[in-house]
Design goal:
Blueprint (H helix, E strand, L loop, with lengths): L1 H12 L4 E10 L11 E2 L1 E14 L4 E6 L4 E6 L12 H13 L7 E7 L9 H16 L6 H16 L6 H8 L4 E6 L5 E5 L4 E11 L3 H18 L10 H11 L1 H25 L3 H17 L6 H11 L4 E7 L4 E9 L3 H16 L4 E5 L6 E3 L3
Parallel strand pairs: 4-6
Antiparallel strand pairs: 1-3, 1-13, 2-7, 3-6, 4-5, 7-8, 9-11, 9-12, 10-11
The structure holds adenosine-5'-diphosphate and magnesium ion (MG).
């Protein structure tokens, strides 16, 4: 990837670039908990967005995405720029946010290429943001710690892109470690690395669907959680435990109560899953994955028939500890924890079964955990 990206950059912009890589991530458990100040367990994965970059002498930023075959250009001096509702927003949002925080950027030329599938819940957006931030900062000789980069990228997505996401995706892209999952407390940002088991693999299966509802439902769920927390007199649902649910249910009503119950029980599942992983209890970890899926399907109502089909096919296959939808929902991917010696048969069976049920050919990949965003040596 690095060789051709450098060459392509040279052809397009006529100089030698520096190269930055920011990975996508898969969330093992803890879905829709990050914006409730709760717990999540992502791992950075081998799919990444790369940015080749070189500074300019003016304040223009020119960016070409090889994936989309499109070029955008904007001026850093256009501070009141409105979002365009295209991929430009991720890049410009990051640039604007860096300057909003008091740094002054040079203009830059960027060439972007990624292999994170777009819009599938593996966070191509955060990987684009983080790669962009790294590239723009380096072109201006500004050194920021990974936590500052994760935070400014999240703010860019919330404030400029208009997606009220939590910190998980950007944090995982910045803080990933080879072979480790991250247990992250989204309130304190305290995190712990949890070694992934040697004898098992993370298998991600893309349903190849993305239903329209995704982003409107996301913002809706977020609002419902905020209102449930207010009713219960806490700042975030993170502050409630399953023992509190019965008390507040009459105040919430059935619909809001189901949403709150997902969030509260999911936080507890993440804690239990972390303990199971530390102690090598993979069956228990898997059972929590299935329980997470059921809660997302029945209480939070963000699954869809394709995701449910994928999980049921996993449940019926030999050597599978657990499986669940991962990402925001309404399509995208499932993640399954599968015994090492069963992976080949599992992926074949999942592909055939899913295609027979839906007429869609799923993309299935075995994921491994990789290091977070960094500059890479140019070829
Ligand atoms: P996810 O983060 O789950 O992949 P999102 O909808 O949050 O899904 O982000 C996907 C969007 O991010 C794409 O529609 C596109 O606008 C932008 N994006 C991601 N990667 C690239 C890329 N390599 N080139 C251009 N735009 C990209
Ligand atoms: Mg995203």
């Amino acid at each position: 990837m690095t060789d051709t990206l450098s060459l392509d950059f040279h052809k397009l912009f006529g100089r030698k670039p520096r190269l930055f890589r920011a990975p996508g991530r898969v969330n093992l458990i803890g879905e829709h908990t990050d914006y409730n100040d709760g717990f999540v367990m992502p791992a950075a994965i081998q799919f990444a967005t790369w940015a080749a970059a070189a500074p300019r002498h003016d304040r223009a930023v020119r960016v070409h995405s090889i994936n989309l075959g499109a070029t955008i250009e904007f001026s850093l001096d256009h501070r009141g720029a409105a979002p365009t509702r295209t991929w430009q927003d991720y890049v410009q949002g990051v640039a604007l946010q860096i300057e909003k925080e008091g740094h002054t950027l040079h203009g830059a030329d960027l060439l972007i290429r990624g292999d994170v599938p777009l819009g599938s819940g593996l966070s191509s957006s955060a990987s684009l943001e983080v790669a962009t931030a790294r590239a723009l900062l380096a072109c201006s000789s500004i050194d920021l710690p990974p936590l500052a980069i994760a935070r400014l990228c999240q703010r860019a997505e919330v404030e400029f892109v208009g997606m009220r996401c939590g910190i998980m995706d950007q944090f995982a892209s910045c803080f990933g470690e080879e072979g480790q999952a991250l247990l992250l407390d989204c309130r304190t940002l305290e995190h712990e690395y949890l070694p992934l088991p040697q004898g098992a693999s993370l298998v991600v299966a893309n349903t190849m669907v993305k239903h329209e509802l995704a982003s409107s439902a996301y913002n809706d769920r977020r609002q419902v959680c905020e209102s449930a927390a207010r009713t219960a007199g806490v700042t975030h649902l993170r502050d409630l435990h399953s023992a509190d649910i019965a008390r507040w249910l009459p105040h919430w009503g059935a619909a809001i109560g189901r949403r709150a119950r997902h969030t509260i029980t999911e936080n507890e599942r993440v804690q239990s899953a972390a303990a199971a992983l530390r102690e090598g209890r993979l069956e228990d970890f898997g059972a929590l994955m299935y329980a997470s899926h059921e809660s997302l399907r029945d209480d939070y109502e963000v699954s869809c028939p394709e995701l449910d089909t994928m999980v049921e096919l996993a449940r019926a296959a030999p050597g599978v500890y657990g499986s669940r939808m991962t990402g925001g929902g309404f399509g995208g991917c499932t993640i399954s924890l599968v015994r090492g010696d069963a992976v080949a048969a599992f992926t074949a069976r999942l592909a055939t079964g899913y295609q027979a049920a839906t007429s869609l050919a799923p993309a299935i990949f075995v994921c491994h955990a990789v290091a977070g965003a960094r500059e890479e040596a140019a070829a």
